[in-house]
Amino acid sequence: MARNSEIKRKTKETDIILNLNLDGTGIYQIDTGIGFLDHMLEGFARHGFFDLSCAVKGDLNVDGHHTVEDLGIVLGTAIKEALGDKKGIKRYGSFILPMDDALCYCVIDLCGRPYFRYECDFTAERLGELDTELIREFFYAVSYSGAMNLHIKMLSGINNHHMAESMFKAFSKALDEASSLDARITDVLSTKGLL
């Protein structure tokens, strides 16, 4: 059974088309209009083995906020839709990812209840054309539209580029684990019978 989705979202601020395959090989084609965000999503796709394509037209003449937040909403929605009824998935995933000086810890529960915890203090205001404060907004939007419990904690880090990249890659590895199928799970991994 294919676990993929296509989400289209158009507002007065953004126009987004995103395709996601949870069981891919890490192929990507990404154009958000923000080069550093493209780089982060390329790492997300490659290291999580997700096939991802997305095209975003946003009101970057204002700033990057709407583009980044709306893309988080669309990606979270795509993850939720691709998971379907969640039968057979491991549900939980965690990963500690090192990138030179940076060390990021990410934990996910695909429980159907959104919750977000974020601990990271960037010392740079921008990475390329991306405001670093928008990274939190992106993951917040992913967690709530994807109905997942998501915790991201930067354990250490000096270089802001490394910190951001370790965060996106840790998220991809944790999501790959949580969304992976386990033959021992014949229904959903919950005593409630529903995720």
Structure write-up:
Helix content is 34%, strand content 31%. It is of the alpha+beta class and 195 residues long. The strands form three sheets. A four-stranded mixed β-sheet has the order 1-2-4-3, covered by helices on one side. The longest helix has 20 residues, at 160-179. The protein is globular, with a radius of gyration of 16 Å.
Short description:
This protein is α+β, with helices and mostly antiparallel strands. It has helices at residues 35-48, 65-83, 133-145, 160-179; strands spanning 4-10, 14-21, 28-31, 51-58, 92-99, 102-109, 115-119, 126-127, 130-131, 149-156.
Question: Mean pLDDT, rounded to whole units?
Answer: 97
The parts where pLDDT drops under 50 for at least 5 residues are none
Secondary-structure element pattern, one letter each? EEEHEHEEEEEHEH
The percent range for helix content is 25-40%
Order of the strands making up the biggest sheet:
1-2-4-3
- The radius of gyration is 16 Å
Structural class: alpha+beta
What composes the largest sheet?
Answer: 4 strands, mixed
Ends apart, CA distance between termini: 19 Å
Strand content: 25-35%
In one word, what is the shape?
globular
Write the layout of secondary structure elements.
Layout: E1 4-10, E2 14-21, E3 28-31, H1 35-48, E4 51-58, H2 65-83, E5 92-99, E6 102-109, E7 115-119, E8 126-127, E9 130-131, H3 133-145, E10 149-156, H4 160-179
Parallel strand pairs: 3-4, 7-10
Antiparallel strand pairs: 1-2, 2-4, 5-6, 6-10, 8-9
Features:
4-stranded mixed sheet, 10 strands, alpha+beta, 195 residues
